[in-house]
Amino acid sequence: MSDLRAPLRPKRKKDIVDFLVHFRWILVIFVVLPISFTVYFLTYVGDVKSAMKSEKKRQKEHEENVKKVVNRLKQRNPTKDGLVCTARKPYIAVGMRNVDYKRARHFEVDLAAFRNILEIDKERMVAKVEPLVNMGQITRATVPMNLALAVVAELDDLTVGGLINGYGIEGSSHIYGLFSDTVVALEVVLSDGRVVRATKDNEYSDLFYAIPWSQGTLGLLVSAEIKLIPVKEYMKLTYKPARGNLKELAQVYADSFAPRDGDQSKVPDFVEAMIYNPTEGVFMTGVYASKEEAKKKGNVINNQGWWFKPWFYQHAQKALKKGEFVEYIPTREYYHRHTRCLYWEGKLILPFADQWWFRWLLGWIMPPKVSLLKATQGDAIRNYYHDRHVIQDLLIPLYKVGDALEFVHQEMEVYPIWLCPHRLFKLPLKTMVFPEAGFELHHRQGDTSYAQMFTDVGVYYAPGPVLRGEEYNGAEAVHHLEQWLIENHGFQPQYAVSELSEKDFWRMFDGSLYEQCRRKYGSVGTFMSIYYKSKKGRKTEKEVQEAEAAILEPAEAEVA
């Protein structure tokens, strides 16, 4: 085992920003939470009104809105207007990365109307939805039908468009892969105004495979058809505690969902783990259960969705004291178990919000909307969080989880750590994220002939040195993390703050299909490239234009 002793660091002098962050809870309670609740309520009312419309009417409105997008694109003058991006405010995105590209001159296309569930097709087992439909909205519609998306990201506010253009994962991803792997078809408006339907086996199959992780830089997504699966009313959840070093905890985690004997009947429907410190973790496996089973005498039902309930990660932590236990959670409440406390970030935002008195009095207006938290923080606090706070996901091969846990401990010392497995499929085309070459020859735990088992190592919280008041260089730690990922065939979702240079960005991701589609579908010169959209820092118009020109020159030379 590696030496996990934390390096000695000098104490850091506090400044005015520390004071503002420490007392930020006042603004959150009296401003952010009330506005958040109002927004949630109005959004819910809008969702109900949308659901009351007939499918035919929703589809007609969709077609009209698509025409507006096409007409808007045709109004753009490439020589005068900036690059195309959506009209969403920069702080709306659910992520820590600064949306600085919208500070430069740009040509806005408003997609705000695209927030309707267009169709639930029970025969094809497909949901057709618009990009701003969020997870709370879709589960509210499907779970009463005993249906759900194959992969339901945990936080209510995460949208279909963000999960497809970016990345999305859930405890069922060890079976179905990432959110984008469950997509059946994509409706996209291209740079020239053409509206195309891309599937894995039609003439736009290259676009279909290139859009995930592209951050909306290939076209404007206006609807998606996504795989549905049958579900039951409850999730039977088993909480299993374990103790040992980080490598040993990683093995317990792998054994919880990837049986060494290969018996697929032992594979649960849902998996996640939380590592609470360097020697303790709780490993949860869930299987769908009927209402009749859940209500049998002696079974424990946990209505986790009630506002006064202990936060889920703290509830799971009880297994370290009481030992292994089993309970039944209503399926929709299980899907969104981390929403109210934003995993464990809620503890940093409101240090006392997990206390029983707060949960009973004000738990019903939790959580604060991430967009409002970002809108009210200002540059100083935003930079403070970038330097002294971590929100990163590491997507790495399953067999390297132990190494990743030790690396995160040494560089960041952040706990709890979230673990969630996912398949990374071998696809007909090499996409931006891809399994290791020849992985199937090694027959490692969790791997199959068609997919390599990866894991999302979720690192969300203030690092140990920051909590102890020590000096900490967040940018340097993230840089080390990114280099480690590159060396270990790992990937970093682009929602996170990144220190990657352009060269290292394309060492981490494969850009061949992406760049091919950028040229083929006219995205160059219309949409910003993914690196310049996701890189840290403000983007100047000159910088973006030079980058676009550098891409265009080789393409023009090839044509000549």
From TrEMBL:
GO biological process: steroid metabolic process
EC number: 1.3.1.72
InterPro entries registered for this protein in UniProt: Diminuto-like, FAD-bd_PCMH, FAD-bd_PCMH-like_sf, FAD-bd_PCMH_sub2, Oxid_FAD_bind_N
Organism of provenance: Dendrobium nobile (Orchid)
Entry keyword annotation includes Transmembrane helix: yes
Domain of life of the organism encoding this protein: Eukaryota
Gene Ontology CC entries for this record: cytoplasm; membrane
Subcellular location: Membrane
Protein name as annotated: Delta(24)-sterol reductase
Segments passing through the bilayer: 21-42
UniProtKB keywords: Membrane, Oxidoreductase, Transmembrane, Transmembrane helix
Domain (FAD-binding PCMH-type): residue spans on this chain: 52-231
Gene3D superfamilies: 3.30.465.10
Coiled coil: none
Keyword Glycosyltransferase: no
Enzyme class of the recorded protein, top EC level: oxidoreductase
Bilayer topology: Single-pass membrane protein
Entry GO MF terms: Delta24-sterol reductase activity; FAD binding
